[in-house]
Amino acid sequence: MTVTDARALASASWTVTATETDFTSGASTVPATSATYAAGTVTTTGTITATTTDVTLSNSVQTVVTGTAGVGDNTATWNPTVAVNLPAGTISGVYTGTLTQSVA
Predict the structure, then answer these.
(1) Are strands 81-84 and 55-56 parallel, antiparallel or unpaired?
(2) pTM over 0.85
(3) Are the beta carbons of 18 and 57 closer than 8 angstroms?
(4) What Å distances lie between residue 50 and 41, 71, 86, CA to CA?
(5) Neighbouring C-alpha atoms within 13 Å toward the C-beta of 79
(6) 24, 50, 64, 95: which has the fewest C-beta neighbours closer than 10 Å?
(7) Helix or strand or coil: residue 51?
(8) Which segments of 21-91 are extended strands (E)?
(9) What integer pLDDT is reported at residue 98 of this predicted model?
């Protein structure tokens, strides 16, 4: 994941959020809250302070990385770890879900 802020502002900030859909396989569902998001180490260029927040994902938007105290153009890059813990009794199958990350 990379955020590039090329607005060249004297005081820049941004927020990255994540949301997850439930995981489905046919009629079986694993709730989105079975997944976690950990941003890990953030590498920056330019002047920006990046702060991460590890979260249990859900169907609601949650903040995972914030950029503050930015000056001029800046970037932040990270490789998040998303883990899904299957609840006991989960039916075997191929489950799909959608992770959406947004920046504002």
Answers:
(1) unpaired
(2) yes
(3) yes
(4) 10, 13, 31
(5) 0
(6) 24
(7) strand
(8) 23-25, 28-30, 35-38, 43-52, 55-56, 62-77, 81-84
(9) 98
Q: Which amino acid does the sequence have at 3?
A: V
How much is the average pLDDT of 64-82? Answer: 98
Q: What is the pLDDT of residues 52-64, one digit of tens each?
A: 999 999 999 999 9
DSSP 87: P
Distance separating alpha carbons of residues 75 and 6, to the nearest angstrom = 8
**Residue in the structure block whose two tokens are 């990379």:** 2
Cβ-contact 63, 37 below 8 angstroms: no
Q: Can you give the pLDDT at residue 75?
A: 98
Distance CA 26, CA 54 (A): 30
